[in-house]
């Protein structure tokens, strides 16, 4: 399950480089960039195949569900001629593999999609007679320049086809990848394929033809066969190598899927409990019935509640992901969008659902109006044909926007063929129903309910009337949406609807509002034509409103945290007027939600909004739930609701603080770790910083006094930026990308500082002031105390309610953190195995050392091997996420981005790492050049102060780009204060080291290694020389990235570097290349000034290149 993207030259000839947004892009770069717009579909991995001589580019964005470790795409034939990218689950791949193995001994598919390549080689386009599943794929045979493109019979997998100005063909899972460059775009028709030579006649051909599509069937219903066939369909949809669950609305369709899945899984494990999820507003009809089913099947059930405002905030995001403006689709999708985000946060990667049943059984309430059997059947055929632009489009795109695969057993091809071959007399609802030859008034989907009336569901659910999903989650939402839209669309605008939108002219202000948003994101006539309107049959006398409640048949049913933060504060505490933004009028809440959305990768689990319009305040929290998973929703409020907090951080001593607060207030219990900030503020005001330990950035607002308190942790582990717009309003965000478009003044918030007061008079103060920052310390090293302090720091960083692991580079820093974490966790569980990860090119120096450590501590270790081309593809992405152009940071971050993406795919949400040790112990190899103790210590102080611009920036932003929290025990405040208070004589590397008052040549970080010399690490690793991370992943990496940058920058361009970039002028072509990309994304001098360059001390005689290999002391690790 994934995203696919392809560009195919119209004549099979090379495609020349293109200028895109001011930069020249090769076919590979251009394809990688465009496919990146759907990378949410495949958060686990990107695979690229380029055949430049043929003008062919294939890109695959992967969500690993089957063949997690072996299913990397593109896939290739044995001879390398056939290349495949597939967004698919082939449910009968095991049987097909067995058949293939008879012809090809020892055939073993690495994943389910592998069989497509083999079937193509054996059967060509005849392969569609053999495969069962949901799929969209592009296959290219370079031996004949033949392309094969196909989409499953019902369009479960989205696929678009476009043509650019040069006539080249574009294929993509989502339209957003092509709308900018393709004036011609269409939905690829379900049940069709294209096959032929590039440059030839490439028109879609139908492969899915069934009698029921043209004829009225006459086969009577057999309810025992309905039961048997549906159970078989669910069984095939349970093939999965990752955690999965089921959506449970409380309607008969989703409830049956959950019940059958439970029954099947209990054949192997009688104690099995399915994870189920329902969504709704408080008091929604669905919750009651979903709870009944969950109790009946004994599932592990979660109810996810939302407010109307939560959904309204997401309208723009939703339309972007849906690529539709259809009212029914948008309405249904908003709650599901909210639910998908929560489900993903639990570690679930695949979810079962009940889509398709209403189309094939005639379940919509307007079907009661069908005048006769023939029209009823034809309308069902129409509904099945339109699934790909309505229910299936919604189900796939909403869940895949969060990297979550949704499966729909009701749309198993053989099951659909059977049900659609049943005569309409047995399925039509109302008085015309003639099941078993008896005409009587029967409810919708009667034969489905009848088939499962024995012990599958509570009768109250089995015979519950159809509730449209957008109704069942809570009636208030459907009533609020038209009101919300009306505020955005004036009568004058709406009166000109047919002029502005001659295609699919909107009939209501709600439809007009959605259409405006769609056109802003997907301009052009052909994009508008990809959308089809879902409405009941008006010629049957049905009302146009798609809500089930509008139909006469409807019954009157009874009714800790790591993240991103964002805030806007009016300069005078007065309301901020709506503004025209990207062509549309936006309220303060809408502007804030939209801008915060640019950092939503930081908080994929939940978005919380506090809007105080009368004071011109908006505060937003994008949540990654780590501690207080079920209770830590933000913004957080004081008991009287006067104090509001959005916090990005982990307060490690919150349990001790809670105990202290409880002594004052009695029975205090925080909802999550950040709750204590509010209580401390109310007790101590701005002096609260004397009490908390952790990594944090937060914004607190006291609406009684219109007072703001914002702060950042002492070392800038958590990023934060502050800006000022043209009206003088104050903006705050975790990432600069949220501000730079609207704030001409932007700066990084200084670590160890807080700002306090009203928006127009924020007082700036430093709260973190230590003696070692201004004086040369004289305390001798105590190795025992050093070891104890680091163990304590690691222990405090292990508070976590989700799966976690550790980065393991094979250097002493990350290895010690992993070893100590293992030791601590085994105090409670002697069999505990830490999950560890390393990354590198093949034969990277780090791999050998990391394996030694993994074996020594018996961790569950994974080596993530990358190719140079894979990392180079991500240069633009990494600069966007890093918000820096510093050479060292970019070099180190590219392999880490690939690693973070892989880690996220395993379900890990928190990771430990070794950042900070080099800064506080003097671990960089250029420290050997320090001329004396004073300069050595002063350089350490400078490196600690600049952590926020280099290692901490990289560690946080790269991992949070994939929704992973990274923790750095070496930067525990108490530990840093201890180590930085040790005299420099004990820490300086080389011949000046005087540890134990014995001067001799010692390795860098000697005292750290000596403190853990007993049974923590193999000696070969403990005493291994420092490898810069960008070197340790493989020496070819740095050499290659230099060459690529040089290829992009001409001598003439580089000669003008000082004119183009007078601030931080780049001194190499590599630096110039990164700077060009940065400036394109983050224009303006203020943005450029937020970046600090990481270079060794040139005045010590060090080379300018930051690579550790450039230092004379470096030893090449074979």
UniProtKB/TrEMBL annotation:
<dbReference type="InterPro" id="IPR014729">
    <property type="entry name" value="Rossmann-like_a/b/a_fold"/>
</dbReference>
<dbReference type="Pfam" id="PF13537">
    <property type="entry name" value="GATase_7"/>
</dbReference>
<feature type="domain" description="Glutamine amidotransferase type-2">
    <location>
        <begin position="563"/>
        <end position="760"/>
    </location>
</feature>
<dbReference type="GO" id="GO:0004066">
    <property type="term" value="F:asparagine synthase (glutamine-hydrolyzing) activity"/>
</dbReference>
<keyword id="KW-0067">ATP-binding</keyword>
<dbReference type="GO" id="GO:0005524">
    <property type="term" value="F:ATP binding"/>
</dbReference>
<keyword id="KW-0061">Asparagine biosynthesis</keyword>
<keyword id="KW-0028">Amino-acid biosynthesis</keyword>
<dbReference type="InterPro" id="IPR001962">
    <property type="entry name" value="Asn_synthase"/>
</dbReference>
<dbReference type="GO" id="GO:0070981">
    <property type="term" value="P:L-asparagine biosynthetic process"/>
</dbReference>
<comment type="pathway">
    <text>Amino-acid biosynthesis; L-asparagine biosynthesis; L-asparagine from L-aspartate (L-Gln route): step 1/1.</text>
</comment>
<protein>
    <recommendedName>
        <fullName>Asparagine synthetase [glutamine-hydrolyzing]</fullName>
        <ecNumber>6.3.5.4</ecNumber>
    </recommendedName>
</protein>
<dbReference type="InterPro" id="IPR006426">
    <property type="entry name" value="Asn_synth_AEB"/>
</dbReference>
<dbReference type="GO" id="GO:0005829">
    <property type="term" value="C:cytosol"/>
</dbReference>
<dbReference type="Pfam" id="PF00733">
    <property type="entry name" value="Asn_synthase"/>
</dbReference>
<dbReference type="InterPro" id="IPR017932">
    <property type="entry name" value="GATase_2_dom"/>
</dbReference>
<dbReference type="InterPro" id="IPR029055">
    <property type="entry name" value="Ntn_hydrolases_N"/>
</dbReference>
<keyword id="KW-0436">Ligase</keyword>
<dbReference type="InterPro" id="IPR033738">
    <property type="entry name" value="AsnB_N"/>
</dbReference>
<keyword id="KW-0547">Nucleotide-binding</keyword>
<dbReference type="InterPro" id="IPR050795">
    <property type="entry name" value="Asn_Synthetase"/>
</dbReference>
<feature type="domain" description="Glutamine amidotransferase type-2">
    <location>
        <begin position="2"/>
        <end position="199"/>
    </location>
</feature>
<keyword id="KW-0315">Glutamine amidotransferase</keyword>
